[in-house]
């Protein structure tokens, strides 16, 4: 990189640089990293024809989550998942009890270090998988800018915010295609669908209504006192946000880590 280019690049905030890199990576199918020519020790390899395949696969995915908490050496452009930093999230919803035009920036997500993988089932027909995950508590904090309403409450403001769902049980359904490269079978993750339940929700949005403190406090109190209907109203937005984040992460990971390290007897016919 030339000195002039480096000077321009160095002025770009770190989170924005990370977002650009991840976005460009998600559009490509990179070759396997040379660091993964041999299977890492943290991956447990399973086979469809073994009687305890589901238990084995569940343990294998748990091992992957555990390593992602601290970061995996050689896995390019994937940092730790706790904390997880996201440059920007756009939220658009125009129907039902929620009508908002909002964005979150400089988002930090914590809590994934306590992820418990309850069950992971891989289909031997289409090779997608269904993963059941329990997350005791997650915290999302950052800067928000919002106009709209939730239930009967009009919301208008920008400032700091945080959300804390607790007792989160997530079911993630992932669709994939298989392809071959460098002598291995890889997953091309094509989509995710997320459903979840929670046992509690706390939240706070600062500087609502241009800093009118009485309205801000009463609105946050109402939203917390009525967290169940608020959670249900926000569920389509939150689920879609989780889906988008997980899809980008999994596309990145599984274009670098061969799928046959996880399931040894995946078919090899039809690959490139």
From TrEMBL:
Signal as UniProt keyword: yes
InterPro entries xref list: Haemolymph_juvenile_hormone-bd (IPR010562), To_sf (IPR038606)
Keywords noted in UniProt: Biological rhythms, Signal
GO biological process, alphabetically ordered: circadian rhythm
Signal peptide residue numbers: 1-34
Keyword Signal: yes
One GO cellular component term: extracellular space
Family label: Belongs to the TO family.
Record-given protein name: Protein takeout
Biological source species: Anopheles quadriannulatus
Lineage summary: Eukaryota, Metazoa, Ecdysozoa, Arthropoda, Hexapoda
């Amino acid at each position: 990189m030339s000195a002039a280019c480096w000077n321009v690049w160095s002025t770009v905030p770190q989170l924005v640089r990370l977002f650009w890199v991840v976005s460009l990576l998600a559009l490509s199918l990179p070759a396997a990293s040379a660091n993964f020519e041999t299977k890492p020790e943290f991956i447990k390899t399973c086979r469809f024809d073994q009687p305890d395949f589901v238990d084995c696969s569940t343990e294998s995915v748990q091992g992957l989550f555990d390593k992602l908490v601290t970061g995996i050496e050689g896995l390019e452009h994937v940092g730790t998942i706790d904390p997880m930093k996201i440059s920007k999230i756009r939220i658009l919803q125009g129907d039902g009890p929620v009508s908002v035009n909002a964005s979150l920036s400089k988002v930090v997500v914590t809590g994934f270090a306590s992820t418990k993988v309850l069950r992971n089932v891989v289909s031997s027909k289409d090779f997608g998988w269904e993963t059941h995950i329990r997350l005791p508590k997650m915290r999302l904090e950052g800067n928000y800018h919002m106009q709209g309403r939730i239930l009967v409450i009009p919301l208008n403001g920008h400032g700091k915010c945080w959300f804390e769902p607790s007792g989160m049980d997530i079911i993630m359904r992932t669709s994939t295609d298989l392809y071959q490269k460098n002598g291995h079978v890889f997953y091309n993750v094509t989509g995710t669908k997320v459903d979840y339940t929670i046992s509690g929700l706390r939240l706070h949005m600062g500087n609502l209504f241009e800093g009118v403190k009485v309205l801000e406090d009463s609105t946050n109190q109402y939203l917390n006192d009525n967290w169940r209907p608020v959670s249900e109203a926000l569920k389509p937005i939150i689920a879609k946000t989780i889906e988008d984040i997980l899809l980008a992460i999994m596309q990145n990971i599984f274009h670098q880590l061969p799928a046959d390290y996880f399931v040894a007897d995946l078919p090899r016919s039809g690959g490139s």
